[in-house]
Design a protein that fits this description.
The protein has one domain. It is 77% helix and 0% strand. It contains 4 helices and no strands. The protein starts with a helix and ends in a 6-residue tail after the last helix.
């Protein structure tokens, strides 16, 4: 079996692993804020594995350079948009009065920014 096949399988397995851990986290975590963190784990780390595997495949198969550009842009857009959307959802949830269970935040930056008022 070629080395690139093994590398692709490892990347895909890593992406599937992080996606599975994120799903378990979404099912087990107690509040919205922890679940939002788990969902960003699914999209960000799961996508990185798939994108890296796609880049390896494109390199081995000799595909055009635009394929590399598209894969890198897809990976970057998913990583940025996932983090930004989770932060926006967390901020909106905090502003509506919901607070984390089990002791709250270690450091409450939202409160310091003035989002504690309704």
């Amino acid at each position: 079996m070629p080395v690139w096949t093994i590398l692709m399988a490892v990347c895909l397995a890593g992406g599937v692993f992080f996606a599975a851990v994120g799903v378990i986290g979404m099912l087990k975590f107690p509040d919205f804020f922890a679940r939002a963190q788990a969902s960003t784990c699914i999209t960000t780390l799961g996508t990185i594995g798939a994108v890296v595997a796609g880049i390896i495949y494109a390199g081995v198969m000799g595909l055009e350079a635009i394929v590399f550009v598209k894969l890198v842009l897809i990976g970057l857009m998913v990583m940025v948009s996932s983090a930004v959307s989770a932060h926006a959802l967390d901020k909106g949830t905090y502003k509506r009065g919901h607070r984390p269970k089990n002791g709250g935040f270690v450091k409450d930056d939202y409160k310091e920014d003035g989002f504690d008022e309704f």
